[in-house]
Amino acid sequence: MKRTVRTVVSALAVTGLALGLGACSEAAEKAADQVDKSVNETYEVTYEVSGDIESIDYHAGGGTAMEPKVESEKKPAAPWKKTVTLKGVMPPAVMPISLDPAGLTCKIVYQGKVIKEAKAEQAMAGGCVAVSPIVD
C-alpha cells in the first residue's frame, strides 16, 4: 500500500512539474514574441527646433538602438522640422546647437503629442531625447 501511495504521489508531482514548466515556457515564448515585436516595429516621430540654430544632430533611423545613425544639418532655417521613421527601442533624439540658447526650443512629437520638450540651456545641454514610444 505504501509503495502504491508513493507511486501515485510521485506521478502527480511529475505531472505538476511538467504542467508548471509548460506554463513557464509559454510565458517565456510570449516575452520573446514581445521583444521581437518591439525590436522590429517601426514608428514615426517629428523633430521640431526653433530659435537661433547653428546645427542640429538627430537620430535618423539607421543603425541600431545602441548605436543609432546620427545625421546633421548645418545652419538650418528656423523653425526646423523633420519627420523620421525609427525602429524598435531606438530612442528618438534631436540635439540642437546654438550660440544664443535663450530662444532655443526642441520637441519630439509622436502621433500628434509632444513626448519630450526642452528649452534654452536645457535644450543646449542635452537636447531632446525620449524613450521609444512603442516600449510598454
If you had to describe this structure to a student in words, what would you say it looks like?
Helices cover 34% and strands 44% of the residues. The chain contains 2 helices and 8 strands; from the N terminus they run H-E-E-E-E-E-E-E-H-E. The chain has a 4-stranded antiparallel β-sheet with strand order 4-1-6-7. It has a 4-stranded antiparallel β-sheet with strand order 3-2-5-8. The termini are far apart.
Short description:
This protein has two helices and eight strands.
Keywords:
136 residues, alpha+beta, four-stranded antiparallel beta sheet, 34% helix, 44% strand, elongated, disordered N terminus
Elements, N to C (H/E): HEEEEEEEHE
Q: Calculate Rg over CA atoms.
A: 25 Å
Largest sheet strand order: 4-1-6-7
Q: Output the number of helix runs.
A: 2
Describe the global form.
Answer: elongated
End-to-end separation in angstroms reads: 55 Å
Strand content: 35-45%
Uncertain segments of ≥5 residues (pLDDT<50)?
3-21
Which percent range fits the helix content?
25-40%
Please describe the topology of this protein.
Elements: H1 2-40, E1 42-52, E2 55-63, E3 68-74, E4 80-87, E5 93-97, E6 100-110, E7 113-119, H2 120-126, E8 128-129
Antiparallel strand pairs: 1-4, 1-6, 2-3, 2-5, 5-8, 6-7
